[in-house]
Amino acid sequence: MSNHTKEQLACSLKKMMSKTCMDHITVKDLVADCGINRQTFYYHFQDIYDLLGYIFRSEALESIVDYKTYDTWQLGFLKIFQYAENNRAFCLSTVNSLGRDHLEIFLNQQVFDLLLGVVNELAGELPIRDEEKNFIARFYTYGFVNLMLEWLKSGTKEEPKAIIDKLSKLVDGDISRAIDKYIKSKT
User: Fold this and answer.
1) For residue 75, which of 164, 170, 166 has the smallest C-alpha distance?
2) How many CB atoms lie within 10 A of CB 13?
3) In angstroms, what is the C-alpha Rg of the chain?
4) DSSP state of 45
5) What's the pLDDT score for residue 10?
6) 72-101 pLDDT, tens per residue?
7) Please, what is the angle between helix 88-95 and helix 100-123, to 10°?
8) Between residues 121 and 67, the one the model is more confident about
9) Is the CB of residue 45 less than 8 Å from the CB of residue 57?
10) Backbone phi, psi, residue 65, to 5°
11) Long-range own/partner contacts, residues 121-124 (CB < 8 A, 24 or more apart)
12) Residue 64: is its pLDDT beyond 70?
């Protein structure tokens, strides 16, 4: 019952966000749409932003869990772009509302985790500190997340596959070179 209620609330929020800015949706609206009481909502979520985070974690996160290696990171990013494209109204409403911060935090964390997996794989046993690996992953995270947010704001006109192809060409070999530069700077 608990997961069913969460899913029901998630579907309701997504449906409402396809027609209304998230900033104008209230808990009262959600519970009325679902036919549940406010206490039930607050049993599961602290607020609408918590529900928003649940949606991103349960829907978008599952699409990239298996793509945190050098050979698969492009597929992970493609999955994120495809999720946004398939849920365009929901994601655009999020970007154009106070929920944007929550989306950015979510994307930054997920992309950072994906990229850190790639950096760790490429670094292997090389003598590079964790803070340096984190910096490399964070640097690329900012670029990737902002690329996606701009794509969303511009109306998702470009095909996700085309964006990932451009990104692959741009980044190919750069993470390994960054690791090498940190190692060489110590000698």
Assistant:
1) 164
2) 25
3) 19
4) -
5) 93
6) 788 888 888 888 888 888 888 888 776 677
7) 100
8) 121
9) no
10) -55, -40
11) 121/69, 121/70, 122/70, 122/175, 122/176, 122/179, 123/179
12) no
What is the Cα–Cα distance from 95 to 62, expressed in whole angstroms?
A: 21
Instruction: State the pTM of this model.
Output: 0.78
Tokens of 156: 């998702």
Phi (first) and psi of residue 90, to 5 degrees: -65, -50
Residue entry with tokens 């969460």:
6
The dihedrals phi and psi of 46, each to the nearest 5 degrees, come to -75, -40
pLDDT at 91: 82
Closest-CA residue to 53 (of 17, 116, 103): 103
User: Which ranges in the chain belong to alpha helices (H)?
Assistant: 2-17, 27-34, 38-44, 48-55, 73-86, 88-95, 100-123, 130-153, 160-171, 174-184
